[in-house]
Amino acid sequence: MIVEHLSLVDFRNYAAADVALHPGPNVFVGKNGQGKTNLAEAIGYFATLGSHRVSQDAPMVRFGADAAFVRARLGYGERRIQLEAQLNRSGSNKARVNGAPVRTSELPRYAQVVLFAPEDLNIVRGDPSARRRFADQLLIQRAPRLAGVLADYDRVLKQRTALLKSARARGLKAEQLTTLDVWDEKLVALGTEIILARVRLAEDLAGPLRTAYEAIAGADHDPQLEWVSTIAGADPEDDGDATAGAVFEGTDATAAAFRAALGAKRTQELERGVTLVGPHRDDLLLRLRGLPVKGYASHGEGWSVALSLRLSSAQLLRDQLRLGDPIVILDDVFAELDADRRTRLADVVADFEQVIVTAAVEGDVPAPLRARTVRVEAGTILTEADEHAAAPDREPDDG
User: Which residues does the record give as ATP binding sites (predicted)?
Assistant: First the structure.
């Protein structure tokens, strides 16, 4: 799979832009703040329905505009698909596939993208929400229908939490709040599906993660990952518990544990007005040499783990999907790596069908990835003709 053409209207700092891309490496070079990352962000949106930089869509709409439009023509061998996303500053977004309206949640069925950026260090060093977000975005690419499950869970969670807050304000006791049972069952049904999907994801990533880490770091530090689950009694959001809880096998056992955990926490939830149990509070525990990466790994090891998570994601999608390789995007990554890791990373991604790289300094990008370089300046894609026109006159002065 490759992006053949990308078109932007009122997206970030682009009033309008069109850029052709090619198989293999594509490098966008420009000073910071010129719009390189915006191109990567636009492509990534089709796969994850979000940005790797912000949690809301409104910042992606150009100042003064009501909506941004992102269009991409994807190539799968001889097949071509045109995707379009309309990101509205307010109201629901819209989407089209080959000109026909579709639900926005349908877009990840057609686009698989793995994007690595400096912000990804937050996956290994940040709060549990960063690791949940990483996992859920990959889940959506593996099974696009889970976008709907995650959205429904979030809706039910908000409604249940609002009920808890209302009950707390009215001074109700747990036994007086019978309507909570209805929301509990909805939360359990949706949450169980998310929990089991995340557990399977961790299991499937384990092998590719070890391979990717050794390729990037040049060492075998036994990287591992597993879920810390609130339905097993952990509370990573409150106490940072780094001990993985029990794993429940099967839908019935997981649902029963979820239901029991909600019952055990009900009084505490009413006192705090917060839903304390469910996948919205779980954490993905990452280990090196048996120790949690967060708090124990060095800066270089943290970078290697973050890179390995993305590269193992790309390998997982490559092995399991029928649309060809995922598009690999490396957004301003090479400036953060030493020479050895730069070379190792370039070697790992070189055989993917399409690799898109952004960099402030072209020399930071290893030579094998510089097959085609495009310069970006102030929201403008510069062609070779543009660059020649902007170059100073070198002919001798007659005076």
Answer: 30-37
